[in-house]
C-alpha cells in the first residue's frame, strides 16, 4: 500500500496531556494511537529544530511540531474546481463543496491547493484566505511571492468585502436586514466554536434574498472572519444552515465521516470585492455556482 505524504506544522494547543503523543492523538481524533506511535518511531514527527521527537517527549503548550501526514489510498473527491481568473499575481478559483482548500487530516492531494499547484505547475501558489471544506465558492490565491504580502494585507486589514449566500430556515419573527454580533470562543470538541460572554468579536450583516415557505435564501456579509462565524451566527438565530453537520447540533461521528454528496452544506462564498493594492483598480469576482433548494 502506497502512501502520499505532506509535511504540516502544529503549535500544540492548551491542554493537560503528559506527552506530545497524547496531544496529537487527542487533537487528530481520526488518526489512531498506533499510527502516531509508528510515525514517531520512523522519525516522522519533528521538533522546531527539525530533529525527530520521541513518543515520550513532554507536552508543552505552544510547542512547534512538524509532522508528516500519510494518507494511504486517499479517497478521490469527485468534484472539480473552476479557475475563474489568473494573472501574474492572483488566481481565483470556484471551489466545490467537500473539497478542502489546504491539506489536513485525511486529505493531502485531494485538496484545492494540491490540485491547482499541479494544474498550474506553480509550487509558489498559496491561498490568501480559506473557506471550510463543506463550503463552496470563491478562494483567492497568490501566484507570486513578491506581491503576496500586499494581497494578504487586504484580509488582515479588512479591506476586502466578502459576500456569502446560505439557505436556512425562515425567520419571520426577525427584522431584516440586520447586523448580528457575537462573542465567539472555542467549543468542545476542539473543532467547534460557541457563543461566549463578553464583547462581540464577530460581526455579520444579514439580508433576505428570497423566501420559499419554510426556507429562505440569505445574503451574509461578514465584517470579521472568524472560524465557523456564519454557521454559528445563523444557528444562534435559530436558523442553522441546511445540512450543517456541526451547528446547531453536532451529528454523530459515523455520519460525519461519510460525506453525503447529494446533500451539501447550503453555504456559498458568492463574491469578493476589493481595490487592487498594486494598481488601485476596483476588482470584483463572483462565483458561478448555485445553491439548490
Note down, in words, how this protein is organized.
It is a single chain. The chain has 293 residues and is an alpha+beta fold. The protein contains six helices and 15 strands. The chain has helices at residues 20-27, 33-41, 112-120, 148-156, 229-236, 253-256; strands at residues 3-11, 45-46, 64-72, 82-86, 90-95, 126-127, 136-142, 160-169, 178-182, 184-186, 193-195, 202-212, 215-222, 267-275, 282-286. Strands 4, 5, 6, 7, 8, 9, 12, 13, 14 and 15 form a ten-stranded mixed sheet that branches. The chain has a three-stranded antiparallel sheet with strand order 1-3-2, with no helix packed on it. A hairpin with a 2-residue loop joins strand 12 (202-212) and strand 13 (215-222). Helix 1 packs across helix 2 (33-41). The protein is globular. The model has no long low-confidence stretch (mean pLDDT 93).
Q: What Rg is obtained from the alpha carbons, in whole angstroms?
A: 20 Å
Distance between the termini: 41 Å
**Are there runs of 5+ residues with pLDDT below 50, and where?**
none
**SSE ordering:** EHHEEEEHEEHEEEEEEHHEE
Name the shape in a single word. Answer: globular
Helix percentage range: 10-25%
Question: What structural class do you assign from the helix and strand content?
Answer: alpha+beta
What's the β-strand tally?
15
Count of helix runs? 6
Largest sheet: 10 strands, mixed
Residue-averaged pLDDT, rounded?
Answer: 93
Beta-strand portion reads 25-35%
